[in-house]
Design brief:
This protein has about 450 residues and is of the alpha/beta class. The chain contains 18 helices and 15 strands. About 50% of the residues are buried. The structure holds D-serine. The site of D-serine has 4 residues, from loops.
């Protein structure tokens, strides 16, 4: 029986979401539109199968075909990234990072060093509210006054703290990451500590850019790489853990340790439909068009950044090298949550985000984060970015002065009133109409 017949409510909600995705500018930098081919694999009969274990070593029968699917995904990832080993089973990025820590660290004893979440790191890079900060010792590094990674400070902290694992990678860092420098830091600290210091590159945001050759690859310099598969890589939700030649030279058992941590350490049966969809996305990413796509993502982000700067927006680090722009709205007298909601009302979907040294709480941060992967997938180019920047400026101008109060009680009262008011703002609704008309020219295939 079809979805429409068995569950018209869910059918209708999916249709509504499809329309929403078509009619707005999706500019959350971690989101993208997967291809129909990826979704076909994801919605296939492979979802029916259990396949605990790995190719040719399964704990369930009937896995001959699944073995081929998983091996194909592994081979494609190995070739695309140039690594000797890939585990394609992690359900998503957070479990994948947990699995890496489980493989290499002793809980409550060993230390993770990662970029502070307040400066653009991910929750799983050692934040106190995630398992990474609860079950392991942690030390964080920060960005400098210019909003850039400060490799001297990172080296100094690493020397003093001797972490067992250093994480390089971020969810809100708009600049090139110097993996070579991170590699030198990890190697030096390993010598000082007298045991390996592993370097993990979390490339979730930039994997597609690396494949396209528009961001340097971490492969020669790091030991382990984790990436989600659904951001610039444009696959389904999922993740992969890769082991490099350097990592294997440091620890010949590294891939075995990772495999054991993924299954049976952390997960049960892999989601074979997800694995197949990852394989499809990797195939797509190996095509020449994908290089052009990656180049265009960056060109678009740079154009958008330049235009926003012209309107007086305060971009962290002054601009971007990748797909992502982080803006501190303080000089515009607009809170990040206010700006994000106003933009949503106007059909521009971005996310509120903390900025370095933010004095506001995470639900009402001072900034917004936006990116170009999804709108580039729709075929938008530099001239469209100019138009989008003008809309963003018009929206933020509309909510100028809408600051979030300092106390918790006043904040809730303010938010309730603002939320109702902004949804009826005629100027924003007019922009939403223009955005909808504009988006109709860029179909999602
Ligand atoms: N939630 C992802 C992001 O938006 O960057 C990271 O997990």
């Amino acid at each position: 029986m079809s979805l429409k017949t068995i569950d018209p409510k869910i059918f209708e909600l999916i249709k509504q979401e499809e329309v929403r995705q078509k009619e707005v500018l999706e500019m959350i930098p971690s989101e993208n539109y997967t291809s129909v081919a990826v979704m076909e694999a994801l919605g296939s009969v492979l979802t029916n199968k259990y396949s605990e274990g790995y190719p040719r070593k399964r704990y369930y029968q009937g896995n001959k075909i699944i073995d081929s699917v998983e091996s194909l995904a592994q081979e494609r990832a190995q070739k695309l990234f140039g690594v000797p080993y890939v585990n394609v089973q992690p359900y998503s990025g957070s479990p994948a990072n947990a699995e890496i820590y489980m493989a290499l660290l002793e809980p409550l004893k060993d230390k993770i060093m990662g970029l502070s979440i307040a400066f653009g790191g991910h929750l799983t890079h050692g934040s106190a509210v995630s398992f990474s900060g609860k079950y392991f010792k942690t030390v964080a590094y920060e960005l400098n006054e210019q909003g850039l990674l400060d490799y001297d400070q990172i080296l100094e902290t690493a020397r003093a703290e001797k972490p067992k694992i250093i994480v390089c990678g971020a969810t809100a860092y708009p600049r090139i990451i110097d993996f070579k420098k991170f590699g030198e830091i990890a190697d030096e600290v390993g010598v000082l500590a007298g045991s390996p210091t592993y370097l993990l590159a979390d490339i979730s945001h930039i994997a597609g850019l690396i494949v396209a050759g528009v961001h340097p690859s971490p492969v020669p310099f790091v030991d382990i790489i984790m990436t989600t598969t659904h951001k610039t890589l444009r696959g389904p939700r999922g993740a992969m853990i890769m082991v490099t030649e350097k990592g294997l030279a440091k620890d010949p058992e590294l891939s075995d340790k990772i495999d054991k941590a993924v299954f049976p350490g952390f997960q049960g049966g892999p989601h074979d439909n997800q694995t197949a969809a990852i394989a499809v996305a990797l195939e797509e990413a190996s095509l020449p068009e994908f290089k052009k796509y990656g180049q265009q993502i960056v060109k678009n982000a740079k154009t958008l950044a330049d235009e926003l700067v012209k309107f007086g927006f305060d971009l962290i680090s002054g601009g971007t090298d990748n797909h992502l722009i982080l803006i501190d709205l303080t000089n515009k007298k607009v809170n990040g949550a206010v700006g994000a909601l106003a933009l949503e009302v106007a059909g521009i979907v971005i996310n509120k985000n903390a900025v370095p040294k933010d004095s506001m709480p995470p639900f009402y941060p001072s900034g917004i984060r936006l990116g170009t992967p999804a709108i580039t997938t729709r075929g938008m180019k530099e001239k469209e970015m100019v138009k989008i920047a003008a809309w963003i400026n018009a929206v933020i101008t509309q909510v100028h002065g809408e600051q979030v109060p300092e106390t918790k009680e006043a904040r809730s009262a303010f938010w309730k009133i603002f939320r109702a008011k902004v949804r009826e703002n005629e100027s924003l609704l007019k922009i939403a109409g223009e955005v909808k008309e504009f988006c109709s020219k860029y179909p999602i295939s």
